[in-house]
Design goal:
With about 230 residues, the protein is of the alpha+beta class. It has helices at about 15-30, 35-50, 55-60, 90-105, 120-130, 195-210, 215-225; strands spanning about 10-15, 75, 80-85, 110-115, 135-140, 145-155, 160-165, 180-185, 190-195, 210.
Length: about 230
């Protein structure tokens, strides 16, 4: 599985608080609901700190139409909860919805229709799942359709990459344009980020600010409106 880092050339720093609030305000101005805007701001900020992808990933969400009339839909069949997001939102929004659904239906596998930045889903899990919760999410392997690939967070909060998971890991066939999430984490995998390193990066951002891409940041600010942001 390959991932692409967002360009950071000529980046400048903004405060962590400003990063979360401007995302919140921009999404709220486009009609998203208060609660999902708040969680999206936190998730986007974490992805910007860790991978440099947060601001860029949320920009397409600012151009969605009729966001309050096209709510995500959930259908449960044969022990599997299928989540459909007709808005086709980014990981900051649909990742949070999938995580909340998985936590609320721990006995079910959750399958989400549509593509997503799998690595970015980790920020939603860290934001929403209680400490000590282990979760696995992934998709069909891009090179070998008989296998799955994905990420997991173990009970310690460490993030692992799994490039070759058995398709038997989940009880249903995961289509190429779908991804899944479930409770628990398999053993093994390649360590991507330990909880200690994550805590260090977040603490550093709190004191030193966060580097952002100037063009992406300007686009986000253009959609931002000054709402009262709950603490």
């Amino acid at each position: 599985m390959t991932t692409v880092e967002a360009p950071r050339a000529h980046a400048f720093r903004v405060s962590l608080r400003e990063l979360k609030e401007e995302c919140y305000r921009a999404l709220r101005a486009e009609g998203y609901f208060w609660g999902e805007c708040q969680s999206a701001g936190r998730i986007m900020a974490t992805n910007e700190i860790l991978w440099g992808t947060g601001v860029v990933s949320v920009l397409p969400d600012l151009t969605r139409r009729w966001v309050q009339r096209r709510n995500p839909r959930v259908a449960v069949r044969h022990g599997v909860a299928y989540l459909t997001d007709p808005r086709k939102t980014s990981v900051a929004l649909v990742g949070a919805q999938a995580t909340a659904l998985t936590l609320g239906r721990a006995e079910h596998l959750v399958v989400v229709r549509g593509a997503v930045d799998l690595r970015g889903v980790a920020a939603a899990v860290w934001d929403m799942a209680p400490e000590g919760t282990a979760m696995l999410w992934g998709r069909r392997n891009q090179q070998d359709s008989s296998m799955l690939e994905g990420y997991s967070i173990d009970s310690a909060g460490d993030l692992y990459l799994h490039s070759s998971l058995s398709a038997q890991s989940v009880p249903v066939t995961v289509r190429r344009n779908h991804w899944f999430m479930t409770m628990g984490a398999p053993s093994g995998g390649q360590l991507v980020l330990s909880h200690q390193d994550r805590a260090h990066l977040l603490q550093s951002a709190l004191h030193r600010g966060v580097e952002v891409n100037p063009q992406a940041w300007s686009t986000l600010l253009a959609s931002s409106r000054k709402f009262l942001v709950p603490e």
